[in-house]
Design a protein that fits this description.
Chain A is an alpha/beta fold. Chain A is about 40% helix and about 25% strand. Chain B is built from 8 helices and 20 strands. The chains are: A alpha/beta, B alpha/beta.
Chain lengths: ~300, ~400
């Protein structure tokens, strides 16, 4: 199922990539990440008093025999990670290059999401996905395993990018679902300031946030000349300009906006990576993931 | 062969060329619609340039040609083809000139023409030998090519002149050879017989008339006879001049006057304004009037015909005055010595638009109409040909 989003050579390169949160992960189950939660496991951590609700089989019966009190044996274990993927599905993600009109930014965003899900699946992590778009909001709560992956990929393949940024209600709905120690990866073009605001709130609430900015090559290079009527896909705003004349100005302002976004992300402690459609996806993926691993 | 425009103002219709040009001129703002997500960083300061462009240039060319051809048609183009050599000398010979002397004077090699209506070649016989020389020379001057030199051969005694001095714009030679212009044979001199019919009251007046006729005969002996009879006597058959001295003018006499007679009558009609005053006295009062009646003339003497009322009778020039009155106006002389009436050069510029002599004009209208039809067909074909949008 996920083959539709990931090309074979890209899939081959995913092998040595791993998602590693900066902090210890929480959650249940066995996973690859160091966990702060105590529970059943291999490495003994401590005893604690029995509390109603604990499984009877986890009571250390030998200790009960000695002390006539119920103690529960806890072990430190590697807990799986909650990976949340937030995909920008606004109309601006429909932007494609003139050279390759079939490849839109949203398609590339789906590729990135599929790659990250593959990695998370391999690591045994739980993963969830939500799209940020008023037209087709998608909220798939965390799950584990190939079935969850197939479900997400199926939903993604049905999803199209349209409409504008969702309101605060949708944002809060998603934000409330994200567990406290989840890793949130936002894939967007970050043209809408609301995306940065969302990341700021999530980071402020203690989630680890990483940002992957997707840009079309046309947005980076502005290869237009002559009279153009530029139409904003979000809101339909039109601007009639002589493209050759505004190019220099546009490039300067756009570069400044990118630099400002990178600065803001750095200030928030958000790992920030940029991908342009004409680049290989692996590079951005590596800088998004390995960078975090190196700083660990 | 030289193209000419008979109505050059028709070229003003070329202003209509602006119509197809305006139709094809599209001030088109060529914009490419481009969806662009990063619109907020695109500055709006640089508006796209409007570019002037001509749509479908071939169709425009056809339409411009069509309008130009129509304008040309309005200007009436003709093709001027000259006959003969424009710069050659033109020798015109007035009838009556001695041809031998003329040839000796001019020499051969030039085009010889009669100075006659239509300017026939010398080999042809002119239809009329009596020609209005002055008028023909003016016509020739107006029609001859500007560079031609006119050599005008005239007889020593030149006829067909008028009162206006000849002025020619062309360079010319005035060659006088012996000869005399033929003239209309003068009518047989009419006998100046004066017929007088008078009543008893005018017995005395007859003496003055006798004296006048006697004076005429002194100047030209035997030219006049006087026939004095009472009123009742009939007029002689050949009578032309009549003096009717009676208060009444019978209708028979009036009818005779209308047939061509000249009568002096004493019956005055003072307020006959249609009559022309002939004689005035010293104070300017009208003494005699003249009125045309039919083909004759009636000379009205309003007063009684005696010296008391008409002191003129006693004047020494009365016979001559009576004679000229009865004779009526004489035609102006048309003959003169050729050397005396030699034409003078006129330096005023020639009027434009005159058809030059010896040229024939061929109208180009049919060919132009054909061209216009062809252009129209081509234009319609090109305009209605199936093609993409953008047909203006």
């Amino acid at each position: 199922m996920s083959g539709g989003f990931i090309e074979p050579e890209l899939r081959a390169r995913l092998r040595d990539l791993r998602i590693a949160p900066r902090r210890a992960a929480g959650g249940d189950g066995l996973g690859q990440h160091s966990s702060r939660s105590r529970g059943a496991g291999l490495e003994f951590a401590q005893y604690r008093a029995y509390e109603p609700g604990d499984e009877p089989r986890r009571i250390d019966w030998k200790l009960y025999a000695r002390s006539d009190r119920f103690f529960v044996r806890e072990a430190e274990r590697d807990s799986p990670l909650d990976l949340w993927l937030l995909l920008d599905a606004t109309a601006s993600m429909q932007q494609a290059d003139q050279a390759r009109p079939a490849l839109r930014k949203f398609d590339r965003a789906c590729t990135f999401a599929a790659c990250l899900i593959e990695i998370a699946l391999r690591q045994g992590d739980r993963f969830a996905l939500a799209t940020l778009g008023r037209q087709s909001p998608l909220l798939l709560p965390p799950g584990r395993g190939a079935r969850q992956r197939d479900r997400i990929v199926l939903e993604l393949s049905r999803c199209t990018a349209a409409g504008d940024w969702p309101g605060a209600v949708a944002e809060n709905l998603i934000g409330a679902r994200i567990a406290a120690h989840a890793l949130v990866i936002v894939i967007s073009d970050f043209f809408d300031p609301a995306a940065l605001d969302l990341m700021r709130r999530l980071a402020g609430a203690g989630r680890e946030v990483r940002a992957l900015q997707l840009l079309a090559a046309d947005e980076r290079d502005f290869p237009f000349s002559g009279g153009h009527r530029f139409i904003d896909p979000e809101g339909g705003l039109q601007r009639r300009v002589d493209a050759g004349a505004v190019r220099k100005d546009y490039l300067a302002r756009f570069a400044a906006a990118r630099a400002e976004l990178a600065t803001d992300c750095a200030a928030l402690g958000i790992v920030f990576a940029t991908h342009v459609l004409d680049e290989a996806p692996e590079r951005a993926l590596r800088s998004l993931l390995v960078d975090a691993g190196a700083s660990r | 062969m030289m193209p000419l425009l008979l109505a050059p103002l028709g070229l003003l219709a070329l202003l209509a060329l602006a119509i197809p040009l305006l139709l094809h001129l599209v001030r088109r703002l060529q914009l490419t619609d481009t969806p662009f997500a990063a619109l907020r960083w695109v500055s709006e300061r640089h508006q796209p340039q409007r570019r002037l462009r001509l749509e479908r240039p071939w169709l425009l060319l056809l339409r411009v040609l069509l309008f130009a051809a129509l304008a040309l048609l309005l200007a009436q183009p003709v093709l001027e083809s000259r006959q003969g050599d424009a710069g050659a000398d033109w020798v015109v010979v007035a009838p009556g000139a001695d041809l031998g002397a003329a040839r000796a004077h001019v020499g051969d090699g030039a085009q010889w023409h009669w100075l006659a209506p239509g300017f026939p070649a010398l080999t042809d016989t002119p239809t009329s030998l009596v020609t209005p020389t002055s008028s023909l020379l003016r016509e020739l001057d107006a029609r001859a090519p500007a560079s031609a030199r006119l050599r005008i051969v005239v007889p020593a005694r030149l006829g067909g002149l008028d009162g206006e001095r000849l002025r020619l714009r062309h360079a010319f030679d005035w060659i006088v050879v012996p000869g005399q212009s033929p003239a209309v044979a003068p009518a047989n001199p009419v006998s100046h017989d004066l017929v007088v019919r008078h009543d008893r009251a005018h017995d005395g007046a007859v003496d003055y008339l006798r004296a006048a006729v006697a004076a005429w005969n002194v100047r030209a002996p035997g030219c006049c006879t006087l026939d004095v009879q009472p009123l009742t006597q009939p007029l002689p058959a050949d009578a032309r001049w009549l003096i009717w001295l009676a208060p009444e003018l019978p209708t028979a006499i009036r009818a005779w006057v209308e047939r061509g007679g000249v009568a002096l009558v004493t019956q005055g009609v003072q307020d006959d304004v249609a009559a022309q005053v002939l004689w005035r006295d010293a104070d300017g009062a009208a003494l005699a009037r003249e009125r045309s009646v039919g083909s004759g003339r009636l000379i009205l003497v309003p007063t009684v015909f005696d010296p008391a009322h008409l002191p003129l009778l006693l004047d020494g020039d009365f016979p001559e005055r009576l004679y000229s009155t009865l004779r009526g106006p004489q035609p102006a002389p048309t003959h003169a010595a050729a050397t005396a009436v030699e034409a003078v050069a006129d330096s005023t510029p020639a009027p434009t638009g005159a058809r030059a002599f010896g040229q024939s004009l061929r109208a180009l209208d049919p060919w132009l109409a054909l061209l216009i039809s062809a252009l129209l067909l081509a234009e319609r074909w090109l305009a209605t040909r199936r093609r993409g949008a953008g047909d203006p």
